[in-house]
Amino acid sequence: MAGQQLQVLNALDVAKTQWYHFTAIIIAGMGFFTDAYDLFCISLVTKLLGRIYYHVDGAAKPGTLPPNVSAAVNGVALCGTLAGQLFFGWLGDKLGRKKVYGLTLILMVVCSVASGLSFGHDAKAVMATLCFFRFWLGFGIGGDYPLSATIMSEYANKKTRGAFIAAVFAMQGFGILAGGVFSIIISTAFKTRFDAPAYEVDPLASTVPQADYVWRIVLMVGAIPAGLTYYWRMKMPETARYTALVAKNGKQAAADMSKVLQVDIEAEQSKVEQLTKSEASGFGLLSKQFLSRHGLHLLGTTSTWFLLDIAFYSQNLFQKDIFSAIGWIPAAKTMNALEEVFRIARAQTLIALCSTVPGYWFTVAFIDKMGRFAIQLMGFAFMTVFMFALAIPYNHWTHKENRIGFVLMYSLTFFFANFGPNATTFVVPAEIFPARLRSTCHGISAAAGKLGAIIGAFGFLYLAQNQDPAKADAGYPAGIGVRNSLILLGVVNFLGLLFTFLVPESKGKSLEEMSGENEQPEEEEPRS
Questions:
Q1: DSSP class of residue 278?
Q2: Whole-prediction pTM
Q3: 292 by DSSP, 3-state: which?
Q4: How would you write the pLDDT of the chain (528 residues) with one tens digit per residue?
Q5: Where are the alpha helices (DSSP H) in 221-371?
Q6: Cross-strand partners of 2
């Protein structure tokens, strides 16, 4: 039976959109801005690392990272993120959102700076140091996922909660953009100051010694936005839902939110005790009650995020082909090292500007009008259609005259990922689980996503190799080919569409209504 909502939580649910909402979006969003910058900036400098540390005298092409080193450098942060999502998600429910929130930020700042330093000068030492610190950087980033989403959902009102959580996630787009823009500025500055011939003209002179500073600066700058928001994160009060429903301190929750909302709120300690004593607020994650109430919901949020990220992170496979096809990135041997960084950064920036960023903000604009379910279903449906449209006539798209069509279809696939499941899979787990398990369940869902990302980024890197071993990339075994990989990704997107039916719609409902936390047992009902 539904019980009465606590006054402090009701005040948050019905509050008009005001300054503290935007402060919370900026504080949580800057964490996501940093996350995206740190995770995606490595792809801008891997080619440069190959030229500096894996140069082979007399080779026709510039040095590149060996497949195992490339996988480690690019993937170690994703592994760290997966571990961090599980650990900090659990810790956020045990110690409180605020206490853990500062910890993740300190870890991100320290590891961003450290990943630009190296112990030793040889390739092995530099890569080992880079991988070690990027793992722990990922660990800190992982904590930001469940904590940012949970804090924003617990601060927001019912009416615009979806847009607020999506706006925090949308800061990722600006982080990717900032990584590209900053790399363009740094590479241009160094290129102007230290001019060098193309690799085919003079292989050794094409990589100036100062290029070693470029990748370090790009990685280390990720510490600045994180450091700037530390003070504001520490000033934020603990969320009222954690204080009241988990810490069971109604007085503190009312005092904190009275300051934030600038209204008088009654403490209602006796009602807090009554609510937290009920069966609905006592079961744990591994209990039968959780399984019967939220088991399918958790299956829905984990499976959809897992399937989405397989498709989303596999885009890296096709980027280099697309950039080369439309002439954004010429052959490596025709450029010097800094020119290559500039070209890659420019291409990534254009993709982010035209496809990634608009998709996120479409979600922010429409999520509280269309609802999470409709946007996720639509996104998966369009991604399925576009993947099959790329895959089935794949040979048609490889002809030079059809390549612009290929780029357009490719861009639309990822526009609908962002105006679709990439945003909604982040929003929904922060809304449908009980307060005492909210951060944990969001962490589990996000970790399932990162597992999908690892499969998408690396499993498909091997799968998409040519079926003829002689035509596969150096160091890779034969795969199933790009066309078959695209068909498989279409199937993955279709499965995402099916699993979306397990996820409930939370538009316009309070968090307690979704989680059943204000339900009271029959015998506690006042008798008439």
A1: S
A2: 0.92
A3: helix
A4: 345 678 888 888 888 888 888 989 999 999 899 999 998 899 889 999 999 999 988 888 898 888 889 888 888 999 999 999 999 999 999 999 988 988 999 999 999 999 998 777 889 999 999 999 999 999 999 999 999 999 999 999 999 999 999 999 999 999 999 999 999 999 999 999 998 999 999 989 999 999 999 999 999 999 999 898 888 888 888 898 898 888 888 889 888 888 888 888 887 787 777 776 765 567 788 888 889 889 999 999 999 999 999 998 887 666 666 676 666 788 888 999 999 999 989 988 888 887 788 899 999 999 999 999 999 999 999 999 999 998 888 888 777 777 778 878 888 888 899 999 999 999 999 999 999 999 999 999 999 999 999 998 888 777 877 777 777 776 777 778 778 888 999 999 999 999 999 999 999 898 888 887 766 544 444 433
A5: 223-235, 240-241, 250-261, 269-277, 288-313, 315-325, 337-351, 357-370
A6: 519
Encoding tokens for residue 489? 């990704």
The dihedral region occupied by 515, where left means phi > 0, alpha psi between -120 and 50, and beta the remainder, is alpha
Could you tell me the two tokens for 131? 């991988």
Q: CA 301, CA 442: separation in Å to the nearest integer? A: 8
Residue pair 74/457 in contact by the 8 Å Cβ criterion: yes
Q: Is there a contact between 23 and 50 (Cβ–Cβ < 8 Å)?
A: no
- Check if the beta carbon of residue 351 is closer than 8 Å to that of residue 406: no
Q: What type of residue sits at position 158?
A: K
Q: Which residue's entry shows tokens 């399984």?
A: 291
* DSSP state for residue 71 in the 8-state scheme: H
CB neighbours of 216 closer than 8 A, spacing ≥ 6? 116, 117
CA–CA distance, 219 with 41 (Å, rounded to integer): 7
Beta partners for residue 519, in sequence order: 2
The radius of gyration computed from the CA coordinates of the chain, to the nearest angstrom, equals 24
Q: What span, in angstroms and rounded, lies between the C-alpha atoms of 454 and 440? A: 21
- Which of 84, 40, 98, 39 has the alpha carbon at shortest distance from 442? 84
Among candidate residues 425, 324, 438, the one with its CA nearest the CA of residue 367: 425
Both structure tokens of 228: 């700037």
Give the C-alpha distances (Å, rounded to integers) separating 185 from 175, 178, 181, 330, 331.
15, 10, 6, 20, 22
